[in-house]
Specification:
The protein is of the alpha+beta class and about 90 residues long. About 15% of the residues lie in helices and about 25% in strands. Strands 1-2 form a two-stranded parallel sheet. A two-stranded antiparallel ribbon has the order 3-4.
């Protein structure tokens, strides 16, 4: 996948906020950090930053699922504003 530029990420966050998205999949987007603007998405119930694909690979003789991740070092403090994150109702 092609990494998102900072501008593309901010535009995606603005779109998600304006349209009231409850899920945002950012896995495999080449992110090294999440911008503070992620705090706008207070309606989010699911934020996907990485996932295992249905494809498998052999690593050191072991079969493991292919991971689609980012290179995040830390998460922004205002992630706590996403109070619906992880809630099913």
């Amino acid at each position: 996948m092609t990494p998102l530029t900072q501008t593309e990420l901010l535009n995606l966050i603005d779109q998600a906020a304006a349209e009231g998205w409850t899920e945002l999949d950012l896995s495999g987007k080449g992110l090294t950090e999440l911008p503070q603007e992620i705090g706008k998405l207070t309606q989010l119930k699911t934020l996907i930053l990485g996932k295992a694909e249905k494809e498998f690979q052999i690593v050191q003789g072991k079969i493991i699922p292919k991971l689609v991740t980012n290179r995040l070092q830390r998460l922004p403090d205002n992630l706590v504003a996403l109070e619906h994150l992880g809630k099913r109702k």
